[in-house]
Amino acid sequence: MGEVDVHALRGVDLRLYEGEFTVILGASGSGKSTLLNIIGGLDVPTTGRVFYRHRDLTRADPDELTEYRRYHVGFVFQFYNLIPSLTARENVALVTEIARDPYSPEETLELVGLGERMDHFPAQLSGGEQQRVAIARAVAKRPDVLLCDEPTGALDFRTGRVVMQVIERVNREVGTTTAVITHNAPIARVADRVVTLRDGQVESDSPNAHRMPAMELEW
Ligand SMILES: Nc1ncnc2c1ncn2[C@@H]1O[C@H](COP(=O)(O)OP(=O)(O)OP(=O)(O)O)[C@@H](O)[C@H]1O
User: Fold this and answer.
1) Is residue 219's pLDDT more than 90?
2) Which residue, 32, 77, 126, 140, could crosslink 181 as a Cys pair with Cβ 3.0–4.6 Å?
3) ipTM computed for the complex
4) Residue 104 to residues 93, 99, 138: CA-CA distances in angstroms?
């Protein structure tokens, strides 16, 4: 920022393993969103390298990064980012129309438990339902990696738990490598592996001995 250097991340060394469910935990300002945006090819680090399989994303040109995001990464944000003038089905179809070998919008909306609400507009859906549409949209392209930035941040506990159940289901049934970032520590219990970030650095990185079913979560 002008004269001031802000180090959002410093010396992060991290792997996401295929099929694994990772929760990245950290306080506000610890660098979680920056890290997720770099993993997802939305941002490029000023130094360091990022690999997707054997591809060095830090050396990719903008077209290659677009290709990586379009075909390999699904994003879920805290505030859903649905298009208000389109129905749930049409919001998902926006992605399936440009994807290779996608699921149909109907299949993914069934997967997130919204088979009955496909023709509703976002304003006719609750926050949790809108987030499930956003998850359906992210998953419809069959991404290899699903990245979720505070997916329950705007939701009350019960609704947030349903959203976590849906993410858990996608990870288990579709086999998508999944990373959820949150400041909410109890959510980490559903992960295979928990990474904690503090001041832009990885403070700890360890597997969970027992992965708790999302339906048992409480916070
Ligand atoms: N574009 C930017 N310009 C300047 N500073 C930035 C920028 N993006 C992030 N930062 C700073 O980098 C640090 C990490 O920010 P980041 O958004 O990654 O944290 P976070 O853990 O996701 O926080 P939160 O949970 O509050 O969103 C913060 O100190 C933030 O102010």
Assistant:
1) no
2) 32
3) 0.89
4) 8, 11, 12
Residue in 34, 39, 184 to alter for ligand 1 test, most ligand atoms within 8 A of Cβ: 34
**Residue of 5, 7, 23, 32 with the most ligand 1 atoms within 8 Å of its CB, for mutation:** 32
- Residue 9 pLDDT greater than 90, yes or no: yes
End-to-end CA distance of the chain: 37
Encoding tokens for residue 137?
């949209």
| Residue 52 placed within a domain | yes
Q: Is residue 211 part of a domain?
A: yes
Quote the ligand 1 centre to 58 CA distance (angstroms): 20
Q: Quote the ligand 1 centre to 54 CA distance (angstroms).
A: 28
CB 128 within 8 A of CB 120: no
Print the domain residue range for 56. Answer: 21-83+143-216
Tell me which of 24, 33, 36 to substitute to probe ligand 1's pocket, judged by most ligand atoms within 8 Å of the beta carbon: 33
Q: Whose CA is nearest to atom 9 of ligand 1?
A: 8
Residue 201: give its domain's CATH number.
Answer: 3.40.50.300
Q: Is residue 120 part of a domain?
A: no
Tell me, yes or no, whether 100 lies in a domain.
Answer: no
Counted domains in the chain: 1
* 8 CA from centroid of ligand 1 (Å): 6
Place of tokens 């949790």: 128
Tens of pLDDT, residue by residue over 45-83, are 999 999 999 999 999 999 999 999 999 999 999 999 999
Query: 99-136, pLDDT tens digit by residue?
Result: 999 999 999 999 999 999 999 999 999 999 999 999 99
**Rounded mean pLDDT, 26-39:** 94
Q: Do 99 and 141 contact (CB within 8 A), yes or no?
A: yes
